[in-house]
Write a structure and sequence with these properties.
- The structure is a single chain.
- By secondary structure, this protein is mainly β.
- Helix content is 0%, strand content 50%.
- The protein contains no helices and ten strands.
- The strands form two sheets. A six-stranded mixed β-sheet has the order 2-10-9-4-5-6, with no helix packed on it. Strands 1-3-8-7 form a four-stranded antiparallel β-sheet, with no helix packed on it.
- A hairpin with a 6-residue loop joins β5 and β6.
- The model has no long low-confidence stretch (mean pLDDT 95).
Length: 119
């Protein structure tokens, strides 16, 4: 299993970014999620989306600002981030959700993509 996240960058507060994550090496038929890890903090859950139905879950801190989506034909999951805040600064990772909605398994985390928000 390989999960390659991209789309990070540096933006000012209030700006937007769209992250992408391409999955390879397995059949893309799992629930997927996004997580993030800020400097000096533990990794935390951001959002998750079911494989075939439109059920999504968001962390309270991003609800109303972030949107998770997926294109199963492209083995890709997205995270649209709007109204970014300095506290959103972190390395963002996508991951397979093994226990809905935020439980992960032994799958590799990959390198993630860095999002830096300046105020």
């Amino acid at each position: 299993v390989q999960l390659q996240a991209s789309g990070g960058g540096s933006v000012q507060a209030g700006g937007s970014l769209r992250l992408s994550c391409v999955a390879s090496g397995y059949t893309f038929n799992n629930d997927m999620g996004w997580f993030r890890q800020a400097p000096g903090k533990e990794r935390e859950f951001v959002a998750a989306k079911r494989w075939r139905v439109g059920i999504v879950v968001y962390a309270d801190s991003v609800k109303g600002r972030f949107t998770i989506s997926r294109d199963n034909s492209k083995n890709t999951v997205y995270l649209q981030m709007n109204d970014l805040k300095s506290e959103d600064t972190a390395v963002y990772y996508c991951q397979i959700i093994r226990r809905w909605p935020r439980g992960t398994g032994p799958d590799s985390w990959g390198q993630g993509t860095l999002v830096t928000v300046s105020s």
